[in-house]
Amino acid sequence: MLDRYARGFFTALFRPLVRTLARAGATPNLVTVLGSVGAAVSAVALYSWGQLFWGTVAITLFIFSDMIDGQLARYLDQQAEAGHGRARSSADRALGNFLDSSLDRLVDFAIFGTLAFWWFTGGGRPMFGTAALALMAAGGLVSYVRAKAEALGFDASVGFVERSERLVVVLILTGFTGLGLNSWWWFGGVVAVCVGSVVTIGQRITKVVSQARAGHEPAQTRR
């Protein structure tokens, strides 16, 4: 949901950087890999030791790559159409899609997993750690349900809480908790996002079921 409303703002914000990366010969896949690995390493290195504020700062900087890689891909395509570069192959586009989806899961698991580790250990709040694990599982299911539905030819592009909402809420609350905000705000926010993720799973399953009952023929069965 946030993606749809914030896309224009971030497109304008990152346009100069995207052009600089294109001139430097960077590829969307390279940006995806470096950003995802950087975010995951930041989570493990900082969150697991209780550095909630600085961990959030580092992760946020790397997570912006998730927006930049898509913008870079579109910019390179536009340049190729204008005759100023080589067009990307369909195999390269497919690889980019695969890397983006797979590495998003890596980053999510690193963030929520290390937060859970911290609350179970140094944070001293096992209930909070359980909430982080529950959100990790719910978030993974949100993404899986859509990916599986689309692989079968259904449309599951609906949802109250998607990845952007999960990350924004959790990162903001975690950062402020690191600055001294009462940690119960973190817990309440994570529980709310977890409930929203479960609702999103239900929305997507319901939409797929309604399409199937309406006679939609999944792509996997088409000849």
From TrEMBL:
TM regions (residue ranges): 40-64, 127-147, 167-187
Keyword Membrane among UniProt keywords: yes
InterPro entries, per database record: CDP-OH_P_trans, CDP-OH_PTrfase_TM_dom
Keyword Zinc: no
Top-level taxonomic group: Bacteria
Keyword entries, A-Z: Membrane, Transmembrane, Transmembrane helix
Protein name per the record: CDP-alcohol phosphatidyltransferase
